[in-house]
Write a structure and sequence with these properties.
The structure holds two protein chains of two kinds. By secondary structure, chain A is an alpha+beta fold. Chain A has two helices and four strands, in the order βαββαβ. In chain A, the strands form two sheets. In chain A, strands 1-4 form a two-stranded antiparallel ribbon. In chain A, strands 2-3 form a two-stranded antiparallel sheet. Classes of the chains: A alpha+beta, B alpha+beta. Bound molecules: protoporphyrin IX containing FE. Protoporphyrin IX containing FE (HEM) is lined by residues 78, 90, 107-108, 119, 175, 265-266, 269-270, 273-274, 277, 310, 315-316, 319, 344, 371-374, 376, 378-382, 385-386 of chain B.
Chain lengths: 64, 432
């Protein structure tokens, strides 16, 4: 099972992940990143990989 | 159209690398073909090229800078903010004098942890979800501007200026609207942001001394924003200013000085960039009529087309970083204090990354351009907003002004920093 990891010290709340994988990532009202599915299903994986790859702060990882 | 100029680089094997000078202001008035031929040459033969600094009235010239033109090098520098910092200035080659950094000391020229603190507070207002709420107003504003441009052209001889009548008002109204800047102050905002980003183009500042002009523009904006912030504390509304005066992260709020600086950054960063993408994007479409026709007919291309326009135009030509220590990067050694200019415009035409880089391809996918910055903490805060503005603007243009035709040469801004246009003559043919 793959797991999403967020490095909270690096995250700047850019929201790039949310625009690529809105089912999995959401910035809450305080600008803090919420991960709705820490273990994304097979349908989410492509979008999550895209988000990890695109994170401008390199704050995301996917442990597969 | 009869004014076609090739947008790709001119093939000039005789181009002498020793004669290239990116600090020469006249170089930045050259057409794109010349600019990209120079970038190609540097990228291929001297990916870290050293240049003496341009001289600016009232400022002492610094030691010089490395020009970075390969995407991989640029992204590596951008990704290491501890080694390549922004705090000594990200938007000017010269170190910023203390009096200027008072006004422009916003997060774009800050390092963590100060940068992260401010960025987190404001990032809340720029999330994709928050932006969903402003879409309707973006559509409304774009429709208004296009209707006014159309009415003006039709009332006259059918001609218009793409920059003044379409590209400038759209982002200005959107950002002023989001922040709640009153109608009567909007001209001030436009003029001040022009001055701040003009990089001293004499046509854009009345002031003989660009430094004085910069300071005055900054003070005018700071005064306006201070007034606005105070009003919103008294009478909260649903605008961004209200959100900013109230927002806090882990119990911390922005100071008024920080809010004023942030406003200036937003206005400056959000206006000229988006205006440039619209104006230069329209120019690129008129030079590539078959692509324009394809995009016009197929709204599902909006997403890739907008990315390609940002890659193609690269509204922000460069940002600066400064080395905090001695080191080596991809075989290139550098010293503490060395300055690097990250040339996004060059990296976005890197053949190592982009197939046929000098070809506009509105369905290019993937498109890992660095038009909004490379990986790193300063990645454009307004990227979502800008993408939305561009998608709406071009789509509505196709619908409301399908007969828009560029009729003459653009007047280019003589700035190394913004790839802007001052004027772009056009007309509405009346043929739909
Ligand atoms: C097509 C339009 C735009 C382009 C090409 C663009 C490009 C850029 C670039 C290259 C950077 C610097 C990245 C770095 O240093 O790593 C940046 C930063 C920034 N942009 Fe944009 N931008 C655009 C639109 C906007 C808009 C509409 C806004 C706001 C309303 C905005 C606000 C900002 C801010 C606040 C920063 C500084 C972020 C930080 O330091 O953390 N930009 N932009």
């Amino acid at each position: 099972m793959s797991r999403v990891q967020v490095d909270r010290d690096r995250c700047v709340g850019s929201g790039v992940c949310e625009s690529l994988a809105p089912e999995v990532f959401e910035l809450d009202d305080d600008g803090v990143l919420q991960v709705h599915r820490e273990e994304p299903g097979p349908d989410d994986l492509d979008a999550v990989r895209d988000a990890v790859q695109s994170c401008p702060a390199r704050a995301l990882a996917l442990a597969e | 159209m009869s004014v076609n100029t090739p947008a790709g680089p001119v093939d000039s094997p005789e181009l002498d690398i020793e004669a290239i000078d990116l600090s020469d202001r006249d170089f930045w008035a050259e057409p794109p073909a010349v600019r990209h031929a120079v970038f190609d040459k540097l990228r291929a033969e001297r990916p870290f090229a050293w240049f003496a600094e341009p001289t600016m009235e009232g400022m002492e010239a610094g030691p010089g800078y490395w020009a970075v033109t390969r995407l991989a090098d640029l992204d590596a520098i951008s990704s290491e903010p501890a080694i390549f910092c922004s705090g000594q200035g990200a938007v000017s080659i010269q170190d910023i004098p203390a009096d200027l950094s008072e006004f422009y000391g916003s997060m774009i020229s800050m390092d963590d942890p100060r940068h992260a603190r401010i960025r987190r507070i404001v990032a809340k207002t720029f999330t994709p979800r928050m932006l969903e709420q402003v879409v309707d107003s973006v559509v409304g504003i774009v429709d208004d501007v296009l209707a006014e441009a159309r009415a003006k052209a039709e009332a006259g001889d059918g001609t218009l200026d793409v920059v003044a009548d379409i590209a400038a008002p759209i982002p200005l109204r959107i950002i002023c609207d989001m922040m709640g800047v009153p109608e009567e102050d909007r001209l001030l905002v436009l003029n001040a942001s022009n001055t701040i980003l003009s990089g001293g183009d004499p046509e854009l500042t009345d002031e003989a001394d660009p430094l004085t002009a910069l300071l005055e523009a900054g003070m005018a904006m700071a005064e306006l924003m201070g007034r606005l912030a105070a009003e919103r504390i008294e009478n909260p509304t649903d605008d961004l200013t209200t959100a900013l005066v109230n927002s806090e992260v882990e119990g911390e709020k922005l100071t008024h000085q920080e809010i004023a600086s942030f406003f200036i950054l937003l206005l400056v960063a959000g206006n000229e960039t988006t205006r440039t993408a619209i104006a230069q994007g329209l120019l690129a479409l008129s030079e590539n009529p078959e692509q324009r026709a394809r995009w016009m007919a197929d709204p599902s291309m909006d997403k890739t087309a907008v990315e390609e326009i940002v890659r193609w135009v690269s509204p922000v030509t460069w940002m600066r970083r400064t080395a905090t220590q001695d080191g080596e990067l991809n075989g290139h050694s550098f010293k503490e204090g060395d300055k690097f200019l990250l040339f996004y415009a060059a990296a976005n035409r890197d053949a190592e990354v982009f197939e046929n880089p000098h070809q506009l391809d509105l369905s290019r996918n993937p498109n890992p351009h660095v038009g909004f910055g490379g990986h790193g903490p300063h990645f454009c805060l307004g990227a979502h907003l800008a993408r939305r503005e561009l998608a709406v603007t071009f789509r509505r243009l196709f619908e409301i002004c399908p007969d828009l035709e560029i009729t003459g040469e653009p007047a280019r801004l003589r700035s190394s920093f913004v790839n802007g246009l001052k004027r772009l003559p056009a007309r509405l043919t009346g043929q739909r």
